[in-house]
């Protein structure tokens, strides 16, 4: 399976590629200046984190909004990628009332997909100023924290996922399980 990891300049994006390669996938870091057509060779897309805000810097994310809307493959958004998916598909993203940095308790409310085996909660690495406050129509919330209601979400057909936390960072408990679950979903 070939996975495009969309690189927005985030400090942890290389860890996503490393984890996916460790799990036996062909993972390639891609900058968002590639056309949608150039990404059609990939079986899935992971949108990494980065320094931008989807609130007022969507224009700095190249073709990434088009990837969200146009690529008909499973998608996983992490941190900024989670916010990007929400914003592009009609959800709401705002400046966080209380930004989260470091380890945070993430409460799993629905573990039937990407969070399988993680209930009731995990300690997860966070690094964000913005947050999804309302998922797009057709999405449900999978996890929350004390400060962020939408820590994880999925669309109704279980093909588009977002997590606010960083499963690729070693401090996140069972972070690799998030990637394993995503791979299982992609292979269905």
Following the backbone from N to C, one meets helices and strands in this order, namely EHEEHEHEEEEEH
Strand order of the largest sheet: 2-1-3-4-9-8-7-5-6
Largest sheet: 9 strands, mixed
Q: What is the strand tally?
A: 9
* Contiguous helical run count: 4
Distance between the termini: 12 Å
Report the top-level CATH class. Answer: Alpha Beta
According to CATH, what is the topology?
Rossmann fold
As a whole number of angstroms, the C-alpha radius of gyration is 15 Å
The rough form would be described as globular
The CATH homologous superfamily is named Class I glutamine amidotransferase (GATase) domain
Which parts are unreliable, with pLDDT below 50 for 5 consecutive residues or more?
none
- CATH-scheme architecture: 3-Layer(aba) Sandwich
Strand content: 25-35%
Helix proportion range = 10-25%
Class by helix and strand content?
alpha/beta
| Count of separate structural domains | 1
Enzyme class: ligase
Organism: Sulfolobus acidocaldarius (strain ATCC 33909 / DSM 639 / JCM 8929 / NBRC 15157 / NCIMB 11770)
Catalytic activity: XMP + L-glutamine + ATP + H2O = GMP + L-glutamate + AMP + diphosphate + 2 H(+)
Pfam families: GATase
Concise account of the structure shown:
By secondary structure, the chain is of the alpha/beta class. It has helices at 13-22, 64-70, 80-88, 175-186, and strands at residues 2-6, 26-30, 44-47, 75-78, 92-108, 121-134, 139-144, 152-155, 160-163. The protein has a 9-stranded mixed sheet with strand order 2-1-3-4-9-8-7-5-6, with helices on both faces.
């Amino acid at each position: 399976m070939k996975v495009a990891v969309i690189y927005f300049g985030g400090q942890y994006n290389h860890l996503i590629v490393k984890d996916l390669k460790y799990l036996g996938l062909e993972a390639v870091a891609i900058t968002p200046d590639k056309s949608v057509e150039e990404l059609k060779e990939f079986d899935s897309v992971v949108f990494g984190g980065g320094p931008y805000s989807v609130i007022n810097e969507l224009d700095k994310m190249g073709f990434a909004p088009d990837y969200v809307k146009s690529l008909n493959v499973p998608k996983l958004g992490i941190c900024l990628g989670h916010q990007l998916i929400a914003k592009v598909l009609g959800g709401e993203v705002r400046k966080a009332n209380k930004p989260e940095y470091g380890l945070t308790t993430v409460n799993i409310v629905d573990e039937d997909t990407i969070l399988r085996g993680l209930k009731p909660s995990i300690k997860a690495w966070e690094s964000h100023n913005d947050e999804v406050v309302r998922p797009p129509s057709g999405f449900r919330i999978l996890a929350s924290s004390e400060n962020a209601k939408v820590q994880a979400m999925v669309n109704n057909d279980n093909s588009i996922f977002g997590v606010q936390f960083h499963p690729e960072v070693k401090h996140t408990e069972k972070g690799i399980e998030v990637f394993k679950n995503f791979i299982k979903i992609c292979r269905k």
